[in-house]
Automatic annotation (TrEMBL), chain A:
Belongs to the ABC transporter superfamily. InterPro entries: AAA+_ATPase, ABC_transp_ATP-bind, ABC_transporter-like_ATP-bd, ABC_transporter-like_CS, Oligopep_ABC_C, P-loop_NTPase. This is Oligopeptide transport system ATP-binding protein. One of its GO terms (molecular function) is ATP binding. Keywords: ATP-binding, Nucleotide-binding, Transport. Residues 6-257 form the ABC transporter domain. It comes from the Bacteria. GO terms for biological process: peptide transport; transmembrane transport. It comes from Paramaledivibacter caminithermalis (strain DSM 15212 / CIP 107654 / DViRD3). It holds the Pfam family oligo_HPY. NCBIfam families: oligo_HPY, PRK11308.1.
Automatic annotation (TrEMBL), chain B:
Residues 99-288 form the ABC transmembrane type-1 domain. It is a multi-pass membrane protein. It is found in: Cell membrane. PANTHER family: D,D-DIPEPTIDE TRANSPORT SYSTEM PERMEASE PROTEIN DDPC-RELATED, OLIGOPEPTIDE TRANSPORT SYSTEM PERMEASE PROTEIN APPC. CDD domains: TM_PBP2 (cd06261). The chain crosses the membrane at residues 38-58, 107-127, 148-174, 220-241, 262-284. This is Oligopeptide transport system permease protein. The lineage of its organism: Bacteria, Bacillati, Bacillota, Clostridia, Peptostreptococcales. The keyword Coiled coil does not apply. It comes from Paramaledivibacter caminithermalis (strain DSM 15212 / CIP 107654 / DViRD3). It holds the Pfam family OppC_N. Belongs to the binding-protein-dependent transport system permease family.
From TrEMBL, chain C:
SUPFAM superfamilies: P-loop containing nucleoside triphosphate hydrolases (SSF52540). Its main location: membrane. This is Oligopeptide transport system ATP-binding protein. The keyword Membrane applies. PROSITE patterns: ABC_TRANSPORTER_1, ABC_TRANSPORTER_2. Residues 8-259 form the ABC transporter domain. It comes from the Bacteria.
């Protein structure tokens, strides 16, 4: 595999819960609680998990949209977790984000040329207005929209088209890394595949590296080279996409995979139905976080947190069953 | 292949839309013009502005200099349509000139309210934390005083006069405006388009002025329109109490103040400026209601 | 397929909305039926009219702007569209119950869970408060809520999303309805919780023998739940048939395209998926002829001018229908 573009080391992002008159915080929501992974140049790393598992917070912490509490984020050989705002500005050209909601991610009061052009205004202030508009028009063509649309407002587009505009905005500065947070989950089924194909095409065209965050395992599988499964602020399993779906090792991954409804008739599958709900991230369970719902829970799981270990072929799992 | 097909399909729809503007504000404006009562309110406002601008041409007499004690207390006649006051001045001319003061007070006090309210509200809503706490505590203190009494207190403290009125009436409104803006800013600062701007590296001021505030304008416009009419009323009340623009400046409030003594003998002294106030307030309120319908709760296409 | 008794039949239903910006034919002449003890899935994308269909059955469409323009909905031999407000109130919750997508908005936040179930039970079953509360506890136990005696006294916000949806199901089933209408009941839930709820719904159906009309956009859920499937597009039914027929032998280009376009758990990765071009049409401005024609790769002249009728395509099976001009040219796809 090629070289690393991004290294995340023991990332923790806690949100204080404010209480009392003066907003002293005594409790924290441990949204991301010690996550480590690498992203290699040109690959797509998928992050899956259910709501509240911390996948979106992980993405936003890497972008420094949310300040991480602890840990290192090494981008292109440089630790960016402690950069100040000004130093960070340079890095922002190289990593961009695609957002989930095609409606709230575009400012309803701005024209497309202003929405996408903002990138040039901020980073290439010497660029003339005319040039800027030409660049925006080019970008619209790249994402499959009519370049004449630059003077339109977001309300004139459908959900799928809006998502294309969001993608064009993320491409404007020719970034190396794009973090896509649930980019297709708000779209209709028949529109999803259009956007997935576009993301695939752009990756090849501009040799992009993606972190693809989603809750839909089949969508993640389709786009990713490697996939990390998150549960309650931690990555529980991380491996090659094919391997994860054919030989899952963690009981949570297994349950998750078996729970996906498959659009086929007559395929009999073993179904693992997990009991109960995901515990609160304010007060996560001791030991392995999954032990409260795990069908194979052992005594050790309740006490000791399993290490995140390589069980061979770069297949990382955090489970006592596999780690022995 | 995919691209061209998409483009072809969307181009087909083009012609019907061509000549209409797609700006969300213009769309709202067009919808507003379909609302008959709002348009009526708008006509009243235009009419008032017209009068204020052309008062010197429209007035048959000068409101201050043309006094003639021998013609005092005349009822409405062909010579003096609205009658004359205790100094024999033409009430119609004074009412026409009075519109200048009223509209100026309405607008100028809103400018004061908006500049203080937007600045503090945006700071509080965007930065939260200590900034927010200090500003909101100030706003609460502000709200603990009845607005009008507070305006009187300011007028007394600075001394009466037109500029005092601008400031006093503008200042008492800031807390409400700040609260409105703060709520809106807090709503939008979490939205994905603001996150997108931050991930592009936009500065705080850029985010506040270019991303957030344009989205907060709808309720601000509504509350400002409504605010103009209450400022005009408040100005009349201040003048009525003798705290507004000083005589002989013709304002509707002070005209009523002086007319009060003659309410039984010369009721026209108080009726005509009173009607002018009612008409103005009515106009702004109708228009404001119409604005609320098209701008609130949210813009849809 | 064995012949089952029809329990609800919808005939030529048209529910239109008369809005500021024009006419929306949300449901435009659809006919289908639900048989005793079966699960009928209605699939389609946003705005295809699937939810309005469900609301029409319960006469819950706000009128105005909505209007039932034509059609009849026969339930127990009577036309629901002709029923009065009062009569419908007695049918809702009792004979026909509904579960919504957002349990938080369909539960009243100021009443306890127990109270809300009791209210339905007391309205329809002439029980006193105490007996009704016992039924409520029993129902919560049935839908797998731990410590039901404690939970009946809790408020909706104290429960997780999955728990709330269980409460909704308990409430819906508390009066033993003959038909349960579920509108995207698992869309707001996580996969593992969705699996729990689907499992529960299947069990409850077996136990009570009621029929389910299940509305969803997720073809995976359809495959899991459906006995029969109705596919809707832009206010019309484009195809209907048994689950096997729809998944293994889709006849309409839209159904076929949808099935091909979704990413699967096996097969090739990172390759281009099949794409249905264009976008879902605006209901204000529908294309002439077949509503799907601008996106259809097989569209011909007739598709652009004349609307295809929904006709039986299997002489042995009158329930297998499709609305496409191509069927004349026999099986083109697959």
């Amino acid at each position: 595999m090629s070289e690393k573009l991004l290294e995340v080391k023991d990332l923790k992002t806690y949100f204080p819960i404010q209480n009392g008159l003066f907003g002293r915080s005594t409790k924290y929501v441990k949204a991301v609680d010690g996550v480590s992974f690498d992203v290699y140049k040109g690959e797509t790393l998928g992050l899956v998990g259910e709501s509240g598992c911390g996948k979106s917070t992980t993405g936003r912490s890497i972008m420094r949209l949310i300040e991480p509490t602890e840990g290192k984020i090494i981008f292109d050989g440089k630790d960016i977790s402690s950069l100040n705002k000004k130093q960070m500005l340079k890095i922002r050209r190289e990593m961009q984000m695609i957002f989930q909601d095609p409606f709230s991610s575009l400012n309803p009061r701005k024209m497309v040329k202003e929405i996408i052009g903002a990138a040039f205004e901020i980073h290439m202030s010497s660029m003339r207005k005319k040039e800027r508009e030409e660049e925006v028009a080019k970008l619209l063509e790249v994402v499959g929209l009519n370049p004449d649309y630059i003077t339109r407002y977001p309300h004139e587009f459908s959900g799928g088209q809006r998502q294309r505009i969001g993608i064009a905005r993320s491409l404007a500065l020719k970034p190396k890394l794009i973090i896509a947070d649930e980019p297709v989950s708000a779209l209709d089924v028949s529109i999803q595949s259009q956007v997935l194909n576009l993301l695939n095409k752009l990756q090849k065209q501009f040799s992009l590296t993606y972190i693809f965050i989603a809750h839909d395992l089949s969508v993640v599988r389709h786009l990713s080279d490697r996939v990390g499964v998150m549960y309650l602020g931690k990555i529980v399993e991380l491996t090659d996409a094919n391997r994860l779906y054919t030989k899952p090792a963690h009981p949570y991954t297994k349950a998750l995979l078996s729970a996906i409804p498959i659009p086929e008739i007559g395929v009999k599958r073993e179904r693992i139905i997990l009991e109960g709900d995901v515990p609160s991230p304010i007060n996560p369970p001791n030991g392995c976080r999954f032990h409260t719902r795990c069908p194979k829970c052992m005594d050790i799981c309740k006490e000791k947190e399993p290490d995140f270990k390589d069980i061979g072929d770069k297949h990382y799992v955090a489970c006592h069953l596999v780690n022995g | 292949m995919e691209k061209t097909q998409l483009m072809n399909k969307s181009q087909k729809k083009e012609p019907e839309k061509k000549n209409k503007s797609n700006n969300p504000w213009i769309i709202a404006w067009r919808r507003l013009l379909r609302d008959k009562t709002a348009v009526f309110g708008l006509y009243i406002i235009i009419f008032l502005i017209f009068i204020a601008v052309f008062a010197p041409i429209l007035s048959p007499y000068h409101p201050i200099e043309d006094f003639n004690l021998s013609e005092a207390f005349q009822g409405p006649s062909m010579k003096h349509w609205f009658g004359t006051d205790w100094m024999g001045r033409d009430i119609l001319s004074r009412v026409l000139y009075g519109s200048r003061i009223s509209l100026t007070v309405g607008l100028a006090s809103r400018v004061v309210t908006l500049s203080i309210g937007i600045t503090l509200g945006a700071l509080a809503g965007y930065f939260r934390g200590k900034v927010d706490m200090v500003i909101m505590r100030l706003a609460e203190i502000m709200d603990a005083f009845p607005n009008f009494l507070f305006a009187i207190a300011i007028s007394v403290a600075i001394g009466p006069g037109l500029y005092t009125v601008f400031f006093a009436l503008g200042f008492v409104g800031w807390s409400g405006m700040a609260r409105l803006i703060r709520g809106q800013v807090m709503l939008y600062r979490e939205s994905e388009f603001v996150e997108a701007a931050r991930s592009l590296g936009a500065s705080n001021s850029r985010i506040i002025f270019k991303e957030i505030l344009p989205n907060c304008m709808a309720p601000v416009i509504i509350s400002t329109t409504m605010g103009i009419s209450s400022a005009i009323m408040a100005e009349a009340s201040l003048s009525f109490l003798g705290l507004g623009a000083q005589p002989p400046t013709p304002t509707w409030g002070s005209m009523m103040n002086f007319g009060r003594q003659y309410i039984w003998t010369a009721p026209y002294m108080i009726i005509f400026p009173g009607l002018a106030i009612v008409l103005t307030v009515y106009g702004f309120n109708l228009f404001g209601d119409g604005l609320r319908d098209v701008l609130d709760p949210r813009m849809k296409d | 397929m064995e012949k089952k008794e029809e329990m609800l039949s919808v005939k030529d239903l048209r529910t239109y909305f008369y809005t500021h910006d024009g006419l929306v034919p949300a449901v435009d002449g659809i006919s289908f039926n639900i048989k005793k003890g079966e699960t009928l899935c209605v699939v389609g994308e946003s705005g295809c009219g699937k939810s309005v269909t469900a609301m029409s059955i319960l006469k819950l469409v706000p009128t105005p702007p909505g209007k039932y323009v034509s059609g009849e909905i026969l339930f127990k031999g009577e036309d629901l569209l002709k029923k009065s407000h009062e009569e419908m109130r007695m049918i809702r919750g009792n004979d026909i119950a509904m579960i919504f997508q957002e349990p938080m908005t369909s539960l009243n936040p100021v009443f306890t869970v127990g109270n809300q179930i009791c209210e339905t039970v007391m309205l329809h079953q002439q029980l006193n408060k105490k007996e009704a509360m016992e039924v409520a506890v029993e129902m919560l136990r049935k839908v797998g809520i731990p410590l039901p005696e404690k939970r009946v006294r809790e408020y909706p916000h104290q429960l997780s999303g999955g728990m709330r949806q269980r409460v909704m199901i308990a409430m819906a089933l508390s009066c033993n309805p003959i038909l349960l209408i579920a509108d995207e009941p698992t869309t707001a839930l996580d996969v593992t919780i969705q699996a729990q709820i689907l499992d529960l719904m299947r069990k409850m159906k077996e136990e009570t023998g009621s029929s389910i009309m299940f509305i969803t956009h997720d073809l995976g859920v359809v495959a899991e739940m459906a006995d029969r499937v109705v596919v809707m597009y832009a206010g019309k039914i484009v195809e209907q048939g048994s689950a096997e027929e729809i998944f293994n032998d889709p006849r309409h280009p839209y159904t076929n395209g949808l099935l091909k376009s979704i990413p699967r758990l096996q097969g090739k990765r990172k390759e281009d998926l099949h794409v249905i071009e264009g976008m879902v049409p605006s209901m204000y401005n529908l294309p002439k002829g077949c509503k799907f024609n601008p996106r259809c790769e097989h569209a011909t002249d007739i598709c652009k001018s004349k609307e295809p009728p929904l006709i039986a395509i299997d002489s042995n099976n009158e329930e297998r229908k499709c609305a496409c001009w191509l069927l004349e040219k026999r099986r083109l796809y697959k």
